[in-house]
Amino acid sequence: MVLWAGRFKKEINQDVNAFNSSISFDARMYKHDIMGSKAHAKMLAKQGIIDEISLYEILKGLNEILLEIDNGTLLFDPNAEDIHMFIESELTKKYPVSGKKLHTARSRNDQVALDLRLYTRDEMNEIKMMLINLINVIISQASNHTTTIMCGYTHMQRAQPITFAHHLMAYAEMFYRDITRINDCFERMNVSPLGSGALATTTYPIDRMFVAKELEMKDITYNSLDGVSDRDYAIEFANDLALIMMHLSRLSEEIILWCSWEFKYIELDDAYATGSSIMPQKKNPDIAELVRGKSARVISHVSSLLTMMKGLPLAYNKDMQEDKEVLFDAIDQVKLCLPVFTDMLKTMKVNSKKMRDYAAKGFINATDCADYLVKQGKAFRDAYKTTGQLVAYCIEHDEVLETLSLDIYQSFDAVFEESIYEAIALETCVKNRQVDGGPSPQAVEKSIILMKEKVKAL
After folding, report:
1. pLDDT tens per residue across span 249-272
2. Helix (H/G/I), strand (E/B), else coil: 69
């Protein structure tokens, strides 16, 4: 069935038809197209635009089509222009008279705008659940390592002592923010554009709010031009997905470092690593590497959507057909990465001793040494200089602050006492950082409790 058969005298060129078709990728929205069509049909009947017999046949036909697609007895026609045309054509085959009434007071412009919102809404909810699962795994791992001391870094240089739990919970915060961003986008996205028509609504007495309520959408769009041409929510959601992948990529990079021979902080479960075809000793973090690689793919989709939209005049333009493939792929990649990444994190083994041994090197307690002098009445800048001189002495003599004799300490400043050793012990350095948001076991346990409460409230 050609929608514009009354206007055109020639059949469309087959190459043009293939070029124009979107059913190869928009077929995944069939449930949402049927959902929107059912709500639209109910509204048409409520408003007296179609009769009850037509409504009955339309709903019956749409339900049959849904069942047939779900059970595989109805296959998508690759020659159909899009999923909307395919479903309407199948409905008309079942009910030739009633089927032709469904598209009354509706355009494919507002129809696809609605379908994409409904589809995106479902995907948002699914990805949120995946993120919640990931956060819960992070919380579980962190709860086991609130006293596991490790080195914290800045500029990839050893900086100050923290705990592994503190490090992990930083990612819990990131992924929680990802969920809140999705929630924010959901609020702006969950409004109905149906009734906008092609661009200028319709002369029929439709009830747009009825359709919105049927579809559990909180409101309608209030400008028909914007209603059919808005893809802000798609760009915003794609950006949210890019941020998720960026966060996954950052943690992937750390995991790749941590499981290297140079670190050996963790070991990945055999089920979540691969070997080499030539080097029998290898155990490669392929999952983390693939996630890191796929992040670039998802990030690029944001640019594609922005570039596609930036030069489009109002209202709908065929360019906007290009929104789906990139958005769908961004969704698919995130949904592919999150479950396997979560399981990889859940099953990894942590080498607490190796973390502690590495933390003992690199003078990461130097700040605490300076703080010790400040507590003895020294100005911080003077204390900073003295500690720097102590570190230089240690490097020159192949020692660390913990092994220096008290005589050496006192040769730099007489205020040093035996208590310096307790003050610069890594356990003390971590334990004393009890500021909210800090790395002490007490502070991290508090952050874990708060995160559990926030996730539970989602």
Report:
1. 999 999 999 999 999 999 999 999
2. helix
pLDDT at residue 132 in the model: 98
Q: Is 76 exposed, middle or buried (0-12, 13-18, 19+ CB in 10 A)?
A: middle
In a 13 Å sphere around the CA of 102, the CA atoms on its Cβ side amount to 30
Q: Which of 276, 303, 411, 419 is catalytic?
A: 276
Question: In angstroms, rounded to a whole number, what is the distance separating the alpha carbons of residues 179 and 324?
Answer: 22
Whether the predicted pLDDT of 12 surpasses 80: no
Which alpha helices (H) appear in 348-365, and where do they start and end? 352-359
What is the bridge-based pairing of β-strands 266-267 and 349-350? Answer: antiparallel
Half-sphere exposure of 385 (CA within 13 A, CB side): 5
Euclidean distance between the first and final Cα of the chain, in Å? 46
What residues form DSSP beta bridges with 266?
350
- Structure confidence by residue, pLDDT tens digits, 292-305: 999 999 999 999 99
Give me 346's structure tokens.
Answer: 């859940």
Residues 327, 251 contacting (CB under 8 angstroms): no
Closest CA to 287 of 351, 349, 345, 350: 345
Q: How far is CA 407 from CA 365, 404, 414, 416, 417, in A?
A: 19, 8, 9, 9, 9
Whether 276 is a known active-site residue: answer: yes
Question: Average pLDDT of 369-390?
Answer: 96
